[in-house]
Amino acid sequence: MGARPPGRNMGPPRPSADATEGDTALKRGTGILAVAAGEGPVTHDTDPPARPEPRRRPARGLALALAVCLAGADGVAAETVPEAAAPILPRTGAAPADFAPAGWRVEAQAFGDLDGNGVPDLALVLQGTDPGRRIRTGPADDAPAIDGNPRILAVAFGMPGGRGYRLGPANRTLIPRRVSATEDDAFEDPGSLSIRSGTLVLVLHSFSSAGGWEMGHRTLRLRARRDRFDLAGVEAVTVHRASGALRTTSVNVLTGRAWVRSGTIETEAGTVRRYRLDRRRSPTLAPIGDGLAFDPLAGARSVR
């Protein structure tokens, strides 16, 4: 392949749908969705969540300097996007829209058998619709806005006899919120969510016009259990826009094996290093958090 200058429209190859395989559930609390690291069983809590310690207001000059440092060229700081409380999702529903509480919408949906009982299940990406979390990227009234509303990845298992769906695991941290106009939305389009061969597949996109040179995609393969998600596999493709370096990572949590190929966009071929995963690591999503930020090779050892 001939050399191409790196740039915004030079997207890396999208991860294969046939690559390697693989949070938490909603906790029913007392009127509030209690989420520990984004994952946990559905239980009724008798004690209210602990109240966070009050934060001291920084001195005015320090606050101004901090805001200037945190704001990008677009003038939007991550802290300007308000935090969002997690809602309680309905336990059952006849259609995808039935699982979107007030102030939320169904952004993406996929159907397929996730628990192997022959009944189609439902995967959803829900997003908040609060206009207060749509932040302008500049002082002008016509400046474009970014949508800082959070998302929830959820599964509802189909009930036999066409009696609708029963809520299963849900996660509010895996799809990162957009907090800067210099960063693209991690969840590009509804086609980024699918169910294939009993596995939930989620594709996250990464691109920043300022503050970083790398761009790419990360495919997460998840197994939906009754009250949690397990990570089955990760495939990532990353391009360095300045140097043209190309890195492809494939991690199969089920077999405990992984490999990383390092090359360039001119040749695509390159050196391959193989790894064995730390089998002591939990496959649950609880310790992962942001689906683009965690290291899928943490604790792995090279076997090259």
Notable features of this structure?
single chain, 304 residues, mainly beta, eight-stranded antiparallel sheet, five-stranded antiparallel sheet, 17 strands, 34% strand, disordered N terminus
Describe this structure in words.
With 304 residues, the protein is mostly beta strands. 4% of the residues lie in helices and 34% in strands. The chain contains 1 helix and 17 strands. The protein has one helix spanning 60-70, and strands spanning 27-28, 33-34, 92-93, 104-112, 121-128, 134-136, 145-147, 151-158, 165-171, 193-196, 199-206, 214-224, 229-240, 245-252, 257-264, 270-276, 301-302. It has an 8-stranded antiparallel beta sheet with strand order 10-11-12-13-14-15-16-17, with no helix packed on it. Strands 3-9-8-5-4 form a 5-stranded antiparallel beta sheet, with no helix packed on it. A two-stranded antiparallel ribbon has the order 1-2. The longest helix is centred in the first third of the chain and has 11 residues, at 60-70. 34% of the residues are buried.
